Amino acid sequence: DSGVTQTPKHLITATGQRVTLRCSPRSGDLSVYWYQQSLDQGLQFLIQYYNGEERAKGNILERFSAQQFPDLHSELNLSSLELGDSALYFCASSGYSGAASEQFFGPGTRLTVL
Amino acid sequence: KNEVEQSPQNLTAQEGEFITINCSYSVGISALHWLQQHPGGGIVSLFMLSSGKKKHGRLIATINIQEKHSSLHITASHPRDSAVYICAVISSGSARQLTFGSGTQLTVLP
Parallel, antiparallel, or unpaired for β A31-38 and A42-50? Predict the structure, then answer.
């Protein structure tokens, strides 16, 4: 158990819908990273927050957004969903702002868009 | 060409064999991660290294910065080592994000 929690574990929805994925980091960790893992693209970095502020942006679509709240949990919002958004979404946390530190991964949310 | 290339893509070994998974990258990096993804999907960080060698139990990771190459070795492999092993780099120019290899699927047979 990494100490990182993600909810829900599974999500099935339809094209055009909007969903919110939630991540709670390990106690004391200030950084939250979001990753997408799809069959055709593998793992990709989406976005990072550190202590409530956006720190880095990767291959995140404009239809996706995220935020980190004062209690340090983070939410990833996916809107106008398309079939290609079906993937595993992981969050990870670390105690530092840079990626050159050990990251602890949550169990993931499996999103299926029908 | 991907920035991070892993080989082999698939590897089947007999229990007890010594296993090597390779990772080559084309950019300057500040650090490299090795991750393990279990059949259920969960990801565990195995190592983060920027030089030399690290060892944890039966796992050894090495990196050669000049040759832009890292290896993950598993000694005395066991069926529970069956998983996908993923290499990820932090490029020098973008110190805040990981770029991932496509992974090596390892199956260890009893």
Answer: antiparallel
Nearest to B106 by CA among B71, B69, B70, B77: B77
Contact at 8 Å (CB) between A34 and A54?
A: no
Extract the tokens encoding A14. 């339809």
Of A98, A102, A105, the CB nearest to B43: A105
CA–CA separation, B88 and B23 (whole Å): 9
**Rounded distance, CA B22 to CA B5, Å?**
8
Strands B52-56 and B59-64 come out as antiparallel
Q: What is the pLDDT of residue A27?
A: 94
List of chain B residues whose C-beta atoms are within 8 Å of the C-beta of residue A26: none
Q: Enumerate chain B positions whose Cβ falls within 8 A of a Cβ in A.
A: 30-31, 33, 35, 41-45, 48, 50, 86, 88, 90, 94-103
User: In this structure, what DSSP letter does residue B2 have?
Assistant: -
Provide the 8-state DSSP code for B23. Answer: E
**pLDDT on residue A97:** 75
Tens digits of per-residue pLDDT, A20-72? 999 999 999 999 999 999 988 889 999 999 999 999 999 899 999 999 999 99
pLDDT at A2 (0 to 100) = 85
- Count interface pairs A-B at CB distance under 8 A: 59
- The letter for the amino acid at A96 is Y
d(CA B24, CA B11): 17
Report the mean per-residue pLDDT for chain A: 94
